[in-house]
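User: Here's a structure from my thesis project, written as structure tokens. My advisor, Dr. K., wants to see whether a designed sequence matches the one we expressed. Can you design one independently, without my sequence as a hint?
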């Protein structure tokens, strides 16, 4: 399926709204993206047009966004662009641009952030990812409690 992926850099315009739904957690907020350009006459950077996007996040991204974002913070949002038109009786249809977010993060070019990993949902016992103990201590068996692994000799240097 062809989808339009975008990366938008802007500011959080509304406080994220978090909801628990039947299909899982969901959060949304408005993102203000203002273009800037160099005005030769003024000799300074000038703000251009501001676009507003409704950003939608689902599952763990929704919970983390709601807990991490506040109005005015600079963020980057990557996701699928959805342009929707809602017909209205007797009026021109309302057009909205939404981003179904895949990733959201603070813009570190404009400030600092402290990352804190969230706990994973309960799972069945995790697979054992530890490798085998290849070292055999003298007089013991691999992995024996209280035994220190033997150090391997350094390779001889050729001169």
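Assistant: Designed independently from the structure alone:
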């Amino acid at each position: 399926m062809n989808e339009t992926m975008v990366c938008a850099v802007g500011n959080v315009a509304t406080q994220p709204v978090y909801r628990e739904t039947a299909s899982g957690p969901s959060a949304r907020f408005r993102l203000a993206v203002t273009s800037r350009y160099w005005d030769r006459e003024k000799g300074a950077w000038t703000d251009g047009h501001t676009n507003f996007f409704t950003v939608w996040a689902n599952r763990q991204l929704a919970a983390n966004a709601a807990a991490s974002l506040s109005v005015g913070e600079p963020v980057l949002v990557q996701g699928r662009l959805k342009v929707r038109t809602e017909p209205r009786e007797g009026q021109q249809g309302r057009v909205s641009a939404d981003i179904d977010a895949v990733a959201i993060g603070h813009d570190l070019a404009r400030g600092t952030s402290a990352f804190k990993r969230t706990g994973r949902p309960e799972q069945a016992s995790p697979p054992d990812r530890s490798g085998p103990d290849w070292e055999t201590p003298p007089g013991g068996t691999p992995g024996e409690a209280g035994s220190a692994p033997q150090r391997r000799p350094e390779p001889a240097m050729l001169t």
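When you compare it with your expressed construct, this may help: The chain has one helix and six strands.
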